[in-house]
Write a structure and sequence with these properties.
By secondary structure, this protein is of the alpha/beta class. It has one domain: 4-Layer Sandwich (Purple Acid Phosphatase, chain A, domain 2). Helix content is about 25%, strand content about 25%. It has 5 helices and 13 strands. The strands form 3 sheets. The protein has a 6-stranded mixed β-sheet with strand order 5-6-9-10-12-11, covered by helices on one side. A 5-stranded mixed β-sheet has the order 4-3-2-1-13, with helices on one face. A two-stranded parallel sheet has the order 7-8. Helix 3 runs parallel beside helix 5. It is globular. The protein starts with 11 loop residues before the first strand and ends with a strand.
């Protein structure tokens, strides 16, 4: 059974994915962006851009790779941490990372539904040992939540099962490109979990 996970104060998180938003870059260069506590990337961004965010904002950066991230190496992006198939703790926040998209062409960072289901099953004991998870960071969305019907942009059914079973407060993904006018347009409530499309960038208080 999942235990209650108490968080002493709100954390400000900058979440990015899929394309470089010029307005974010301008705020960073002009030093008008209120500094976040943590940066997360949900994939499909150049490693050099993540290195830029890590260097300029001087905050920890966790990432998972998207289906187009083929130039990443263990040392690039610089100073950033790949959390694929890991649970990391930041302050009192437990975060699970899962990279990639649904298999569609045999390229890197693509997984069949069966493969992703197996990966998630392998995380059950680490999740239990951590006492639960607050947040899941992925590239692809859950199936039928923010996804599309073409094979490349379908979400994972196993992500919905993960949400139902482990009940994270937040599930943050990229992969689905859309123009958002407000933060609320990015959010869908699925049971007790807020599923958030971070395409471009968004700022969360959790």
């Amino acid at each position: 059974m999942k235990t209650d996970l108490m968080m002493p104060h709100k954390l400000k998180i900058l979440a990015v994915s899929d394309f470089v938003d010029k307005s974010l870059t301008q705020m960073i260069e002009n030093k008008t962006l209120e500094l976040p506590d943590l940066i997360i990337s949900c994939g499909d961004l150049a490693p050099e851009y993540l290195s830029f965010l890590r260097d300029r904002l001087d905050r920890p950066l966790f990432y998972v790779k998207g289906n187009h991230d083929i130039r990443y190496t263990p040392s690039n992006p610089v100073g950033c941490e790949n959390i694929n198939q890991k649970i990391v703790s930041f302050k009192s926040l437990n975060i699970l990372g899962l990279e990639g998209s649904l298999w569609y062409s045999g390229g890197l960072n693509q997984y069949t539904e069966k493969e992703m289901k197996r990966i998630i099953f392998s995380m059950w004991f680490p999740i239990w040992r951590k006492g639960g998870i607050h947040m899941v960071i992925t590239h692809a969305p859950p199936r039928h939540i923010h996804d599309a019907e073409d094979r490349c942009h379908m979400g994972f059914e196993s992500f919905k099962k993960l949400i139902n079973k482990r009940k994270p407060e937040y599930f943050i993904h990229g992969h689905i490109h859309k123009d958002f006018k407000t933060h609320d347009e990015r959010v869908t409530n699925f049971n007790s979990t807020k599923v958030i499309n971070t395409c471009g960038f968004t700022i969360l208080e959790v």
